[in-house]
Each structure stands twice: as structure tokens, then as C-alpha cells.
Amino acid sequence: MKSVKTLLYIVIAALLIGGAVYTIKNNKAKQEEEVAIVNQSNNEVAVNTTLAKYTILNSDYISNGTFAPSQELSFPSEISGRIVRVLVDEGDYVRVGQTVATIKKDAIEVDLTQAKNNLQNAIIDNQRYENAFKTGGVTKQQLDNSRLQLKNARAAVEAQGLRVNDTNVKATISGVINKRHIEPGSVVAPGTPLFDIVNVSKLKLQVTVTENEIVNLRVGQNVKVTASVFPNDTFVGRISFIAPKADASLNFPVEIEVSNNAGLKAGMYGSAIFSTSDDVDAGKNMLVIPASAFVNGISSNQVFVVENNTAKLTKVVVGKTVGTNVEVISGLKEGTEVVTTGQINLTNGTKVKVVK
């Protein structure tokens, strides 16, 4: 009876051990299967994609700036003296050569009279020396000194005559008196500001342009211009200056001349619209992809395309760049799926998982 019980215990123990072994093997198989699935998932790189598509690019480029006068001058005095009359006021329009103020000239006229008297004496003295030299009464050096004194006397008369003319202060540019710095009785010296004159019959819209756009511009090219105070009006401007050097922000200053027939003021805000309407490609359907799709920048001409969940490094030929869009001339077809983010983790043949 005892031996039967012992045999029963052995059988039960064997069954328990067998069951335990079976359970362990079954759990190990499931674990290996799960690990394989995880490894397969970890080998896939998450990326964002987009499709290459045909579109019409609007490559008009807008740059904002301010209007400046075509001419601007802080008009200075050329001589010393006291202001007698001021003939114009702020807001008045003046023309080149117009007298705008007069300076007291009594003392200068006295100097002119003295210079003329000195000239008469120099003429008489020189005549004596000329006659004396013919008879040998004076040396050649004495005659040369007399001639030099005569020249100096004539130059002094001309100089004093110019000073008298300068007492009539005349505008050197046409424009509007923007600021008047003097009053009758003011004492001025050479270089003292008298008036600020601005010419706003034409204005210059001063803007800056990026290096990508500057290559498409040329002096004399017509440009559409708008002003913030006249949002519904469009003006025609002409590029008058393109800077040969970029500024501190790596943009290029450009000036656009605009005829001022609408009452624009210098200092107002305006916008220049650099249009591609003259471009042979304007209005043409182009196959484009985002600039972000390129590996290490557009200049690399390389993108990753996705085929069967696999990234393939592809060489393309690019055309125009408009904003964030790049034209693809060859290398891709419409509907091709290209990677836009995650390229840093990719090599040719990497498995990818597209994240929507």
C-alpha cells in the first residue's frame, strides 16, 4: 500500500514538472515573438512626408520702406554778415537761382571800392615799369614783380565782387523750404545753416532686397509701388539705384524713383512689388517640393523619397526657388512622396514610418 502511494506521488510530481516546463517554453516563445516585433518597430525611423505636385508659383516679392525726397539740402551761408531780409518762409516753393535772403553788404562794398582803387594804382605802376624797362631803367625782376602785383589786384577785385554777389543768398536746388533757421538781424558765418530745402516733385522709395531677389533686378526696371496712405492706388516707379554691397543685415539697399503726383510726403511708408510678369516662367505650372525636403540644403540637390516604407536617396535637378517652394526640373514625378523632416536619421535603404 505504501509503495502505491509513493508511485502516485512520483506521477503527480512528474506531471507538475512537465506542465511547468511546457509553460516556460510557451512563455519564452511569446517573449521572443514580442521582442522581434519591438525590434522590427525600432528599426523604422519616424518621418514626415509630402507629395511632389504641380502648381503655379507667385514669385512676386514685396519689400517695405519709406519715401525720401529726390533732393535734400541744408542750405548754408557762404560769407559772414548780418541778415537784412528773409524773402521766403517755410512751405514756400523756390527755384534754382531764386534769391531767398540778403546779407548786409555795406562793409563788403567798401572793401570792393578799396580793391578797385588798388587795381588802378597797380595799373599805373605797371605801366611805369613797362616804359622804364624799355629804356633800361628797371630790371626784369622789378618788372615781373609789378606784373604780379597787377594780377593780384585784379584777383582781389574779383574776390570782393563775388562777396558782394554772395550777399544775395540764392537757392541752389528747386524745392520746398522745409525749415527756416534765420530771421532778419541774425548774424551768420560761412557754413551757418540758413534753410532746409527738399525737392518732393519726385520721391525715392528706399527698400532692401534679399540676395535671391537682387539678381533679378536692374537699374531702369519698372516696379509697382503702393503707399500706406493710398491703399487703393498703385504707382509706377523706376529702379534708380541698386547697392553693390549688402548692409549689416545682408540685404541690398534699392532706391525706386516715383513721380509725386498724388501729394505723397517724404517719410511716408510705401511698398515695392517686384513682379515676375515679364518672366517667361510666370504663370507656368511647375513641379515643386518644399525646401525642407532637401538633405543639407537646396544646393545638395538630394532628397529622400519613400517607396514601400523605405527611404531612397534621390538626385534631382532644381530650378527656381520661390519662398519655401523649390521647382524640380527632373528626378521626381508628380505624386512622388518625399521626406520633409527626419532626414538626419536616414541613410539610403532605411525603413521608415510615415507620421501623419
Commentary on this structure:
- The protein is an alpha+beta fold and 356 residues long.
- The chain folds into four domains: 1-42; 46-57 and 284-354, Beta Barrel (conserved putative lor/sdh protein from methanococcus maripaludis s2 fold), CATH 2.40.420; 61-68 and 199-274, Elongation Factor Tu (Ef-tu), domain 3 (Beta Barrel); 76-193, Helix hairpin bin (Helix Hairpins, Orthogonal Bundle).
- It contains four helices and 21 strands.
- The chain has helices at 2-42, 106-135, 140-166, 211-214, and strands at residues 45-51, 53-56, 61-76, 81-86, 93-94, 99-103, 168-170, 175-180, 187-188, 193-209, 222-227, 230-242, 252-259, 269-274, 285-290, 302-307, 310-315, 317-322, 325-330, 337-341, 352-354.
- The strands form five sheets. A six-stranded antiparallel β-barrel has the order 3-10-13-12-11-14.
- Strand 11 (222-227) and strand 12 form a beta hairpin.
- Helix 2 (106-135) runs antiparallel to helix 3.
- The longest helix is centred in the N-terminal third of the chain and has 41 residues, at 2-42.
- The radius of gyration is 45 Å and the shape is elongated.
- It starts with a helix and ends with a strand.
H and E order: HEEEEEEHHEEEEHEEEEEEEEEEE
Proportion of residues in β-strands: 35-45%
- Total count of domains: 4
Tell me the name of the CATH class of the largest domain: Mainly Alpha
Count of DSSP strands: 21
- Could you tell me how far the N terminus lies from the C terminus, measured between alpha carbons in angstroms? 74 Å
CATH topology of the largest domain: Helix Hairpins
Secondary structure class reads alpha+beta
Largest sheet: 6 strands, antiparallel, barrel
Biggest sheet: strands side by side, in what order?
A: 3-10-13-12-11-14
CATH superfamily heading of the largest domain:
Helix hairpin bin
Helix content: 25-40%
* CATH architectural name of the largest domain: Orthogonal Bundle
| Number of DSSP helical runs | 4
- What's the multimeric state? single chain
What is the 3D form? Answer: elongated
Unreliable parts? 35-41
Gyration radius from CA atoms, angstroms: 45 Å
Mean pLDDT: 85
